[in-house]
């Protein structure tokens, strides 16, 4: 009996160790991507958006199934995926939250890439 318990504990430790190593590799790769993106000013703002949202631009595009940063397409896909993943439709709150985070990340990226004049016009209402 003790032998089987020891084997179960050993296998469990191996699984946890492998998962931990994989998580470290992913974190290291993400840190390298952020460091590489910091080379340009737009890249640093994009890296800041990544560090705040915790989701990369590519991952956000995959979640919302968009290849280019087109606001209309992003909004259309967001609304569809948000509705489909609603709990009343048998969806998952986790998936719905991923959809929301992806939309936020793409909105941040659109704001970063828009020219400064457009950003100023958005901030100051016409009087």
From TrEMBL:
Its main location: mitochondrion. Residues 106-127 are annotated as: Disordered. It is a peripheral membrane protein. Keywords: Membrane, Mitochondrion, Mitochondrion inner membrane, Protein transport, Translocation, Transport. It is found in: Mitochondrion inner membrane. Gene3D superfamilies: DnaJ domain. InterPro entries: J_dom_sf, Tim16. Belongs to the TIM16/PAM16 family. This is Mitochondrial import inner membrane translocase subunit TIM16. It comes from Gekko japonicus (Schlegel's Japanese gecko).
